[in-house]
Amino acid sequence: MFCKMVSGEIPVTRLYDDADCMAFADIHPQAPVHVLVIPKEHLQSTAHAEASHGPLLGKLMAAAAVVAKGQGLSGGYRLVVNTGDDGGQTVGHLHVHVLGGRHMGWPPG
Ligand code: 5GP
Predict the structure, then answer these.
(1) Where would I find the beta strands (DSSP E) of the chain?
(2) Minimal CB count within 10 Å: which of 22, 38, 49, 60?
(3) Kind and range of the H or E element at 54?
(4) How much is the ipTM here?
């Protein structure tokens, strides 16, 4: 479904956009800042990643850091990658949650 954000079929405000990745606000924010960073190439989850995806995964993490900085999260933030049913993944297009703007407890629920 996030492929439709990439193609523009579902319009979103792009908080980050480069050749490989883009970011937009989560529709149901779980923190004052909750942004999703996705690869433009469809990759279902980290469980579907192969060694050849290494550079793309690195770019995704780097993009998430740029997003966090752009959102002013100088006090820290959390990156979350839910994977599969038990991991709580509900959208089958790899995405990194950037969560911040409040203290993050640990362990998560
Ligand atoms: P997951 O549970 O797969 O790790 O995270 C999926 C996230 O996508 C959820 O936080 C959910 O709120 C968000 N989401 C689902 N559908 C949409 C949508 O159409 N637009 C946006 N911006 N976020 C969505």
Answers:
(1) 16-17, 21-25, 33-39, 78-80, 96-100
(2) 49
(3) helix 54-70
(4) 0.99
Catalytic annotation, pick one of 28, 95, 97, 103:
95
Is 34 labeled as catalytic in the residue annotation? no
Dist. CA 64 → ligand 1 center (Å): 16
Kindly report the pTM of this predicted structure: 0.98
Ligand 1 neighbours (beta carbon < 6 A): 12, 24-28, 36, 82, 88-91
Which pLDDT score is estimated for 42? 97
For the stretch 45-78, pLDDT in tens is 999 999 999 999 999 999 999 999 999 999 999 9
- DSSP state letter for 74: T
